[in-house]
Amino acid sequence: MPRETNIVKIVGEDSYAKLRSTKCLLVGAGGIGSELLKDMILMDFGEIHIVDLDTIDLSNLNRQFLFRQRDIKQPKSTTAVKAVQLFNNSKLVPYQGNIMDANSFPIHWFGEFDLIFNALDNLAARRYVNKISQFLHVPLLESGTSGFDGYIQPIIPGKTECFDCTTKETPKTFPVCTIRSTPSQPIHCIVWAKNFLFNQLFASEPSPEDEVDTKDWGTTDEEEIKRIKQETNELHELQKIIVDQEESRIPDILDKLFIQDINKLLLIENLWKTREKPTPLTKTQLKTIDLADKKLDLNTVWSIEDQLSRFVSITVKLMKRIRTEKVIEFDKDDQDTLEFVATAANIRSNIFNIPLKSVFDIKQIAGNIIPAIATTNAIIAGLSSLVSLRVLNLLKYAPTESPLDLNMAFTAKASNLSQDRYISNPNLAAPNCKCAVCMKVTRGVLSINDMNITLGELIGKLREKYGFPEDISLLDSSEQRLLVDYDFEDLLDRSLKDVNLRNGSVILLTDEEGNEETGMVRKPLELYINVTDDNSIKLTLPPIDVEWIKQISEEDKKMEDEKAKQEEVNEEIIDGEIVILDEEEEEIPKGKKRKLDDEITSENHEMKKSKIDETDDGQIILD
Ligand SMILES: Nc1ncnc2c1ncn2[C@@H]1O[C@H](COP(=O)(O)OP(=O)(O)OP(=O)(O)O)[C@@H](O)[C@H]1O
Ligand SMILES: [Zn+2]
């Protein structure tokens, strides 16, 4: 029996022929990606391009079944392609690279695909692919898992909700003063060790903190702010011990971090009025560190003596590595960096009377890990590949008359829709009228060969083509920079190259004038800059009709915001990635999760202002 017999039985001859001529992009060859690649091959997609930036790690082998021990350190994409050769009947093209690198993956390259599958593990890349799919109108199958939970969301640009239509939780942040002065939980000390200490010693160039904006530090105590800044500058001195390979001075690092700095903190009496005071290490403790290399169990909590001893030996190791590596990034799978962070965090915890943790526990917290489950990945990949048949409308018995007939799927806990069954699959919703990615702007791709034209010339062409008025503003939205505004015209004579616009930059043109009589403005226009080496193309602007939309006054906007606050927010997110819809399943009207209207607020302008004001945020981020 030929291998396609069953799939032909399911989809029919015509649809099978369409499958064979479909060209797909799979982004990510990790847990979901390995499963998806297998499914896509078994479905006989004609061509599958696989992108992954990473190499295989030991910890991937428990679920990324295409990889073996011998493949460790090999690129995921090429290894995955080799692993499936025996049962493959599709054209497979692997790439090792970052999907967000517009030079390796220019927009016209994305444009060659009929369908994109996301099998990623981070918000930034998911958002990026979502945006590209919106620019090009290529359907996207978004998916994610976290432990036993997972979801798939087909996204039909312009027709259904996009990835950014629902708010996603940004990484958890802590005020600087909690991390640097008054930790009270193990996580505070882990963040201090990983994001502050490790980075300052091994991963960064010295940079004075004088310029840092302190508004989000969680304190206005001048004395404390001064101390934190001074402490950072002193840490750069410690970095020299590392760079100069002065092994014998490692106790100085301990002395500075865990005796001197703590003593300085104790002098700020305000801090300890309502809190238990920390107890610095003693000089005797530092003098009696046992330097013998002891075998220690990663699953148990070590004594403070063992923490100190391992801190010294691991610092020596990292010191040697830095000679060749120059900078070392924290990686939970790099045992040296993990043990440095774990011991430093535990020593600090001990000082602040916070319970210590095992290295294994700290790995989970520092790596922000919820163990990945192979079966969840298999289920989610299976659903994603099945739904792709409906996205392409290849199932005759379940025709897709409208994109809103398509279903997303959530596991029970992730969706909260029904506790009685593992998977819920509500219909897709229409785009959220408030979504800045898919609803608030008109999108297109601007192809250009000559980046020496001036910003002024470009704006002239945009005005001419799309009828924008004199009063406009232009933002480089990929870098969040204002380029031109009614009171900022300094860059008009500079070339696009000079103002750092390049292949993959995205610019946003906003009508700041509108029509007073009608109260309407042109919908903002967002253009992706595709730099081509085709000399025949000087500058091609996409054929777009820019709509007029109602301009909302500040007062209306305030009222809208109030209303929105009152409406129950039915979305929540766990693990920064998975959306929980807190609705009764039966209550979701088919394809209509929220009201669709075409109003637009003047939020763009506010976004612009806040972007310009943005400075270092003074928050420590747990990524
Ligand atoms: N910007 C990106 N470009 C290309 N591939 C990416 C990008 N971001 C993430 N990936 C890939 O997406 C995949 C996600 O897979 P998965 O969630 O299983 O993570 P993992 O890194 O393999 O495992 P773990 O995080 O548990 O160690 C990874 O292989 C990762 O390299
Ligand atoms: Zn959207």
TrEMBL record:
What are the THIF-type NAD/FAD binding fold domain coordinates in residue numbering?
8-435
The GO terms describing molecular function are: ATP binding; metal ion binding; SUMO activating enzyme activity
Q: Which Pfam families does the protein's record reference?
A: ThiF
Q: Which residues bind Zn(2+)?
A: C162, C165, C435, C438
Quick one: a GO biological-process term for this protein? Answer: protein sumoylation
UniProt binding sites for ATP = 28-33, 52, 60-63, 76, 121-126
Where in the sequence does UniProt note compositional bias of the Basic and acidic residues kind? 595-613
**Pathway where it operates:** Protein modification; protein sumoylation
The answer to whether keyword Metal-binding applies is: yes
Tell me the active site.
C177
SUPFAM superfamilies the record matches = Activating enzymes of the ubiquitin-like proteins
One GO cellular component this record assigns the protein to is: cytoplasm
Keywords, alphabetical:
ATP-binding, Metal-binding, Nucleotide-binding, Ubl conjugation pathway, Zinc
Region entry Disordered: which residue ranges?
Answer: 584-623
Q: Which family, according to the similarity comment?
A: Belongs to the ubiquitin-activating E1 family.
Task: Provide the assembly information.
Answer: Heterodimer.
Question: Would you tell me the protein name for this molecule?
Answer: Ubiquitin-activating enzyme E1-like
What species is given as this protein's source?
A: Naumovozyma castellii
> What is the gene called?
NCAS0A11940
